[in-house]
Amino acid sequence: xxxxxxxxxxxxxxxxxxxxxxxxxxxxxxxxxxxxxxxxxxxxxxxxxxxxxxxxxxxxxxxxxxxxxxxxxxxxxxxxxxxxxxxxxxxxxxxxxxxxxxxxxxxxxxxxxxxxxxxxxxxxxxxxxxxxxxxxxxxxxxxxxxxxxxxxxxxxxxxxxxxxxxxxxxxxxxxxxxxxxxxxxxxxxxxxxxxxxxxxxxxxxxxxxxxxxxxxxxxxxxxxxxxxxxxxxxxxxxxxxxxxxxxxxxxxxxxxxxxxxxxxxxx
Length: 267
Ligand SMILES: [Zn+2]
Fold this sequence. Notes:
This protein is an alpha/beta fold and 267 residues long. The protein has eight helices and eight strands, in the order H-E-H-H-H-E-E-E-H-E-H-E-H-E-E-H.
């Protein structure tokens, strides 16, 4: 273990609580779909037939499920080993839901940007979230896998809101009327946990968090470290690793891609 990893390890071991923020460097983007031939065909079909555009988020969900990158999974697995036995909480800006398939404690994870776990009304008329319709997902998956049966796509019924008849969309910040009900309960749980960090030895790990949603992790974490004299922050990012003046005495900036950093931890 090199010096910096030893430093992080020791800080975690002696901390009462560990707060982890996960950002863009962990995100698996559905934009890579066009590199997969089967998905590419499907995307092209959707380009031509505008009536099928509603399926895109469903296709994204299927793609993400099928393409959980091994290296990202390895990074999560190592993070779990590093946090083992500690009182931790993980806030993630990722929308790929990959974190929910890891060994990290699901009750200690909050993903305020949402993802593809739930669906909602496009207009958020009822402020309710639901699980996506598996039958629709299965039918679309079948069409993607069997390109020659792509005509079956005509028979897939477009899901609509039972209350207002508008489209059903996935519950994430890409939605114009994002239903925050998808994460609020867990967010409140996280806030209570945070209250418990006051005057405790807190180790903060910020992993690959950029400036896309600075109010979710980056700025609040800086504030937490500024206010808690017993807190210490490790900010790991390929480019945006810099620390603000106020907290540089209680922080350490590491210029490296955070997933690579974790993957290489136990070698
Ligand atoms: Zn509605």
